Known about the structure:
22% of the residues lie in helices and 36% in strands. By secondary structure, it is of the alpha+beta class. The longest helix is centred in the middle third of the chain and has 16 residues, at 100-115.
Amino acid sequence: MLKTASPHRLFFALTLPKTMQRRIVQWRADNFSPEAGHPIAAANLHLTLAFLGEVSAAKALILQQQAGRISQPGFDVTLDDIGHWPGSGVVWLGCKNPPRGLLQLAQLLRSQAARSGCYQSPLPFHPHVSLLRGATRPVAIPAKTANESFRASHFSLYESALVRGRTRYNIVQSWPLVSSERTSDGV
C-alpha cells in the first residue's frame, strides 16, 4: 500500500527470478563495453506490462483493485531477442514470439490504466527487459542473446523511487496468475 498522498511513479511488471537477473547481468558484462550505456541494476531488471506514470494514491488504489480481479493462467516467457532503440537510448532483451498470456495480460492492464486516466503509448506493446539506458550512439549487438526463460506465476505493481541518487523499483503489491495445472480430482 502506498503511504503518502503525493503522486507515485508506478508501473505493472513481471519480476525476473533473482538467479536470472544475475545471469543477465553477467551476460551483459561479457557482451557490452562500459561505453555502450548505463547498465540497469540487477534488482531493477523486470518486464514492464503497463507504465502508469505519476499516479495519486487514490487512483493507485483503484488500479490495485482492478488488478486484483484479473484471473489469467501463468505462462512461460523466453527472452530470445535483443535490440537497441537509439531514440530512447535503450538496449533490451525481448521475446521473438511472446506468449499469448503475456500479450493478453499487458493489454488488460494497459486498457484498465487508460480507462483510469493513465496515458498509454500508442506504440504497440513490445515485451522487453531494459539492459542499458543512455545508449544513444550505435551499439554492437551480440549475435546471440542470453536466451533466458522463466515461468510468470504473478505480476506486480512497482513504484519507481529515487533513493540516494539512484532509481529503485519497489514492489507495492503482487497478484498471482492462476495455475493452469489441474488438481488430482480433475477440478
